[in-house]
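Feature request, filed as a ticket because there's no other form

It would be nice if the structure record came with a short human-readable summary line next to the tokens. Right now we just get the raw output. Example of a typical job, pasted below so the devs can see what we mean:
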Amino acid sequence: MEPQPRPPPTPLSPRTHQLTDFTQPDWKHDVLLASGERIRERNQSGKFGKGFNRSQAKDQTEKEAWRAALREAGTISSWHVDNDARDEAEFIGLVVEDLSNRVFYFRSPYFTNNAVGLDHNVDHLISMLNIGSDDVRMVGIYGTEGIGKTAIAKTICSRLYNKFEGVSLLKDIRHADQEHKLVNLQRQLLQDILKIKQVMLSDRKKHNMREIRIRLSQKKLLLVLDNLDKKEQPYFFTGERDFLGPGSRILITTRDEQLLDDLGVHEKNGKLAVRERSKQRFTEEKDEG
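Raw output as currently delivered:
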């Protein structure tokens, strides 16, 4: 299974931010990396502790402030060349890959800078998607309105944006039963995947399936079908799913668990752990999921 891009870090205290900020002239991050012994850094023990005690801290108050910052910095999730790679070359490759993933994450059209409290749900659902396998897999999220299903799906799209040939999130399909609204979503699907601004389609949704099949044939896609309430709705975007490329994934959000069973999803999740800080954001965004 491919390693996933790491989510944005938890905000640090000002002192710790200074300690780990690459842009500061008084940058001390090299000390943290050079020693490679996070426990000693955190506790200021061993040779690191002796060196720290000989530091140029002006007084005991400042020294204690730096001690606290080091303890906080020592708890940041990180990699270690001895534990995570066979040699320095492989370790550098891991770092480059992670930085590349972060760039795609932040630059994807689905990025949100306020995805508070979503990490646990997002990580769990990405593991359910099992993007390392070549089958075409369908996963569902179900639950009542406003618990954050759409926000979680959007964050997944951002995290996995560079893992697929195309990504599309089609929002609120439940309210698009009229012919022209479904056609607009079919048009959005092609625009998202092909990265073009205009697509000419028929006014008939069933007729458009031929165009979708031809233009998306055998592409590895991540499709989010948001807020479904009828079994026939996925057909107008994925057909029988036989034209999707190996490794494609379909993520469905709905309020109806039985609908997911009827659609034959591979896995489903109805136990979303929504933290208190997330609830306000879901309300403010009027999450349809």
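Something like this underneath would help us a lot:
Residues 19-42, 275-287 have pLDDT under 50 and may be disordered.
The longest strand covers residues 221-228.
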